[in-house]
UniProtKB/TrEMBL annotation:
It comes from the Bacteria. This is Glycoside hydrolase family 3 N-terminal domain-containing protein. GO terms for molecular function: hydrolase activity. SMART domains: Fn3_like.
Amino acid sequence: MTTQHTEPLQLTTEEQAALGSGGGFTSTKAVGDVPAITLVDGSAGVRMQDMSQGADHLGLRPALPATAFPCATVMAQTWNPELVHRVARALGTEAQAAGVQVLLGPGVNMKRDPRAGRNFEYYSEDPYLTGVLASAYVQGLQSQGVGASLKHFAANNTEHERFRSSSDVDARPLREIYLRAFQRVVRDAQPWTVMCSYNRINGVPAAEDRWLLTDVLRGEWGFEGAVLSDWGAVDDRVASVRAGLDLEMPADRGKHDRALVHAVLAGYLSARQVEQAAERVARLARRAKAAARPDTRWDADEHHALARDAAAQGLVLLKNDDAVLPLVAAEGPLAVIGEFAVKPRCQGGGSSYVTATRIDVPLDEIRALAGEALVEYAPGFTADAAADAAPDDPALLREAVELAARSRTAVIFLGLAGSQEAEGFDRASIELPQEQLELLRAVHRVQPRTVVVLAHGGVLRLAPLIDHAAAVLDCGLSGQAAGGAVADVLFGRVNPSGRLAETVPERIESTPAFLNFPGENLHVRYGEGLFIGYRWYDVRKLEVTFPFGHGLSYTTFRYSDLVLEGSAEGVTVRLRVANTGSRAGREIVQVYTGVAGSTVVRPEQELKGFAPVWLERGEEREVTVQVRREDLAYWHTALDRWVVEGGEYTVGVGASSRDIRLTGQLALTGDHAPVPLTPGSSITEVLANPVAAAELGELFGAAFGGLGDSQAAGMGLDILKMIGSTPVQRFLTSLGGGMGLAQVQDILDRANAAVGAVPNGR
């Protein structure tokens, strides 16, 4: 861990308040001996806007050139923490050269619904995968002396009314799904900053939520850095500082600074709280300036090559019937169809949009590998057409079909235009534009060797196109080098190894949050609870088009010899993986766990480990995956803490969530987690405690002629089932005397002490 600067502040209250708000759109203030620092967007590239032309929330104004790396979705599809670390190091180098001290990323919000407009900025529908990759990003970036800003904290899963809506979510899904990735990154990587989100959480604005920003983030997780607001998220600066917010962005022209000083003078806010916030901002600024390397230079070609490697590893081969891929150049001619082949869609719109140093054009890259004379092109459709639009130019369709018919193979580029998905709004559907589907069907009728290449940010419904393509290659939004990466995979220079980080549903109506998205009356009810993504489809036994973790290769792999070992640290999973095909390739070994006969509602299986493994043709290797014990825990709502449940765990190892190759069982000892008895506990709960049962069981039995009899007086009644849920206090009241509450409390105290249960608040 980097040693933090701890110089004391010699500032007045007014100066401390000023330190806690922005000095400009992308900078803090220089106050006293505390320097100003620059903070810019940077999830997939350094977005240093040209301040001579102003700045904005949505990235509409131009920015200085930088490498546009693949978006978070594609980086997640690499399932490669080491690669994420390398990309983040490159981002750190570019940030240093640009004079940037903090990059506003990574985004680790869950992909609760595929329509969410900002999903391309987030990694996955799974908190484990997200947490591991985001930790690698933070560690890589901060190794270069540039701070990360973990965002958007928290439960920020829709763009609709994002400034005002409340995410209404129960304790277990909040902890197990929506906060878990944040927790992992804070504990494993200690980002310099955490950015709170616009939305409310269970009615409380994130920027004013002391439970979130102080009790959980700092108290439970040990966060040491500064909490800053999303741009414009602060309504009440006094309430925000009281909650634990340190830095309001952007500049507020002094209004909120004055309100903070007034609150201290009036006694509404302690001077120490303002001082603590200022100290954290000062520590951040001094740390960043001490790490600054203004003479940093970087090689644009080298970073472009890294972007191409990252894109290639993140491409997912979804389908490959009859091994139509990889293509062989000598087997041309080749038809390339679709406007995205010449005007590539390679990144998302909004604040993360990067002015790329260069853009690989897919058609040019394909011609470079296949030969100029063997490749012909037809646009086929208009990329900006509305999703439900019919083909508006029969000549475009006819030209594309004729080209496909006289070619050996057709590669058709489909997807969504930037106007159809971006920050600031959610998608109305997950459909491909109708014009594109009509084109695909027409091409496939004359050319069965049709390969589809998809460019998009959020998940698309692919069921309508699967039967009309021999192969489907999903490239998401793969950054400036996407064109070269696609060509590399199409022609086998790179063996595809990407795996989906999000389930592809059969239809939107099957998705977990369908009836609760995007919410109404400024409230979003997280009614699906724990069951987002593959968790939902598994427990509901729903068919999906492609499952979480799915991805094909040009080679094949065999799994064998599973061995499971439990310890105080967790579970060690060992197996052998062999490359049984004709090419070298990378396999992603995925480990899922479930608990048979769990005492709580929980998913059938959850991702708890993975390991990328590179194998040459014919090579076999032992693979080891460590599952942390803490990752097996669930949030115990009665005890308000994490608990590992004891029992038999099923461990499945496979190539996707629905391609489990090996399965084993392992008995684990659970945490000691007795729930304390209170007068509000039920009779059944009391009788489960041996001390309480010995002293109170006779009383309960006497009232009903004996609880030991399964049938009561020939009436066909099971008395314990009838009264078992009755709270002890109510039961005693119904007796009209006898044992008093104080006497019962004494018995419950001794019963709790016997099993080590500690009542809340004691």
